[in-house]
Design goal:
- This protein is α/β, with parallel strands linked by helices.
- It is built from five helices and nine strands, in the order E-E-H-E-H-E-H-E-E-H-E-H-E-E.
């Protein structure tokens, strides 16, 4: 079985979808083999609608076809890097950045292997299906790539262990649940 966080081959069937987040309209090309191929998922939408003013340098981690980074660039005009491990996702993200007339720096990185910068924000709808060990590596190693007082923002459903994750993150970060929406927790973890 192929997962959206791998480079396994799945037949391509690109399609266009539109969404409006707050007052920002995006047109996005999606495809088989990427997360939320039918369009913007509810968790990512909830995350983006919760974010207030974002400025500085942002990392969209596990960018998929690019909705987080493209929305942030288009809405707040911040400096955005977007990474994923999936070639198909990266190609779609590049097409979508161009389609939405945004300048997002999109490149491949297996977790943080190609990350050289530090960021004011790391924002993610993390790949839960990679399992707890890799998920925690993603979330806790984020600290090494955050500036002082930088923020890790993420969305996770309560049925995927949101309450436990909040407690565990609090061991390394200053954690606040910024929003709850139909079981999705929007979490901000600050690097103090």
């Amino acid at each position: 079985m192929s997962h959206y966080f791998t480079n396994d081959y799945v037949e391509s069937k690109e399609q266009k979808t539109k969404c409006i987040i707050k007052n920002t309209e995006l047109t996005l090309i999606t495809d088989n083999g990427v997360f939320s191929k039918r369009g913007l998922d509810f968790g990512t939408r909830s995350l983006l609608e919760t974010l207030e003013r974002i400025n500085g340098k942002v990392l969209d981690f596990g960018c998929g076809y690019g909705p987080i980074g493209i929305y942030l660039k288009k809405t707040f005009d911040c400096d955005v890097d977007a990474v994923d491990v999936s070639e198909r996702a990266l190609n779609l993200a590049k097409k979508n950045a161009e389609l939405n007339k945004t300048n997002v720096n999109i490149f491949e990185s297996d977790i943080y292997s190609n990350i050289k910068n530090s960021y004011d924000y790391i924002i993610t709808n993390p790949p839960i299906r990679v399992g707890k060990k890799i998920l925690y590596e993603i979330l806790f190693k984020a600290k090494e790539h955050l500036n002082k007082n930088g923020e890790l923002w993420l969305v996770i459903h309560k049925d995927q262990g949101a309450k436990t994750l909040v407690k565990d993150l609090a061991k390394e970060y200053s954690v606040e649940v910024k929003n709850k929406n139909k079981g999705f927790y929007i979490i901000c973890a600050r690097n103090n």
